[in-house]
C-alpha cells in the first residue's frame, strides 16, 4: 500500500481513464455484430424490400436444425424515413410462437437479432413461417434478399419467386452482455497486473514488458481466433504434421493427371481431412466441438493435397512440428495436435522476439511496437511459418547490431552456433528473405578475432545460406507450377531478364496503386482470411506511435549509426522487396502484366525493423526511454485488446 500511495495521482488517473476508454470501446465493438451459433447468412444479391407502412412479407422455412433460439435478419436502414415499427412474428406449423417489435433505432448495425423467450426443441423437419409487417409509417428498415431458384417469399399476399430473405437461424444464442462481462473482468485483471509491474515494481525493460503483453494477447487470441481461420492454416497444419511424422519431403500424387502444385501433398491419416475441403474463413468456435471428435487412425490413410505449403522446407515448420510431435505422444485427437503446433509456434517466436528486443542497441521500443501490431500477433497465434520468418529476421537484425554496437569482445562459440543456426533456418523458410544474411557484413572483424576469421565466417555463413536455398530449390522445383490462369512462369522469367526496366515499372505502378492498402494491411486492417475488418481509427493510432518512435525516440543518439550501417540496412530491405515482387510476378501474375498480383502487406513485416532503423534520426527531443515505456505499453496493449474484441465477434457470430 505504501508503494501505491507513492504513485502520483495524475498517473493513477491516466491508468483509470485509459481502462475506462478500453472497456467502453470493447463494449461498443462487441455490440457491432449479433453473437450466436447460427446458420450461414445468405448473400444479399437480390432486390431489397422497403418496409413501408402496410408492407407485409412472409417466408416459409423448412427447419434443418434440432434447436432454435432465434433468428437474425440482414437489413439496411434509411435514416430519412419516419419512425415506423416493424412487427415480426414467428409461426411453427401454423402456431404463433412469438412476436417482436423493432425500429431502425432499436438495434445497432444492419443485422436485426430476434431472440426467443423459450428456445424451441426438436424442430428439425418442421415448417416455420416468418411474417413481417410495417406499421405506424415508414419504418426505414429495408430487408435484404437473396436470389435462390428453389425458394420464394410472399409480398402483400402475392408470391415473389426465386427469392428468399437474408435470414439466419440461431441454434445457440450468446448473450453479448455476458461476453462483455467476461472480457471486462479479464481486461481489468490484466490492467491491475500491468499497473503493478510498471508503476509499483518499476519495470522498464521493454523485452520483459513485451513478454507480459505477449502472454496476455496469446491467452485472449487462443479463444478469440478459432483454429484454421487464418490464411492457409489448414494446409500449414498438414505440412507440419507431415514433417512431425518424419516425411521431410512432400509427395506427388501419381494418380493426379495435373502435375505441379495441384498434385503435391502426402499420404496422411484421413482424419486430417476433417475440413472436407470446406473454406475455413467462416469457422466459429462452435464448430470446434464437432472437430474435437476426430481422431487419427494410422490404418486409414489417403493422399491429401496441400500444394501451396508442400514446397516449404522442413525447417520452416520446426516449432509447429515439435509441438505436434509432443502432443502426439499423449493423444490422437486432431484438434489437440493442431493447437499444440500453434501454441509451440507462438511460444518459440515470442521468445525469439523478446531476445531480439533485448539485444537491440537501439529501436527497442520500435521493435516492441512492430511485434505488437495486430497483423504480427495474428501470425504469432497461428500455424503460419510467417511468424518464424518475422522473429528470425528480427533476431538476426538484433544480433548483428548487438555485435556491432554493444559487444566489445570477440564472439564465443555460442555466438557462432547461434549465427549459423539463424542463417540455416532462415534460408529454409522462404528464399526471398535470404538476403537478410547480408546484414552479417555489419559485424566488425574484431568480433571474429581478425580479418582471416572474419572472411572465413562471413563467406562460410553466406555459403551455408546459398547451399541451403539452392538444395531446397532443386528438391521443391518439382512441386512448383502456376497458381493462376494465364500465368507462364518460364515466359515471365524471360520477360524480366529481357526487360528489367518494364519490370521495375510494374513494381512502381503496383506500389503506386496499392501502397495505401499495403500499409493498412501491414498494420492489420484485414485479419483472418481477410474477412475481419478492424478499426481504422485504432490503426491510425498504431501508425502514429510508430512514427513517434522512429523520429522522436532518442535511443539511437548514443551509438554511431554510420551511413554505411544505414546503407546496408536499406539495401538489404530493397533487395528483399525486389525478390518478393519478382516471386509474385513469376508465380501469380499473368504474362507481361503492368502490375504485380497477389502482393500482401504481411510479406513485408520482416523488413520493417531494418528499414525503419535505417531512417531513424539521432534526435534528442524526448528525454529517455524509460518514461515513454510506462505510457506506450498500456496504450498498445489496450489497442490490441480492443482489436481482439472485434475478432472475437467474428468467432462468436
Automatic annotation (TrEMBL):
Pfam families from the entry? DUF2142
List keywords of the entry alphabetically.
Answer: Membrane, Transmembrane, Transmembrane helix
Q: Which domain of life is it from?
A: Bacteria
Which residue ranges traverse the bilayer? Answer: 177-197, 209-229, 387-405, 417-442, 454-475, 527-552, 564-588, 631-652
Q: Which residues form a coiled coil?
A: none
Record-given protein name = DUF2142 domain-containing protein
| Organism this protein belongs to | Candidatus Scatomonas pullistercoris
Print the organism lineage. Bacteria, Bacillati, Bacillota, Clostridia, Lachnospirales
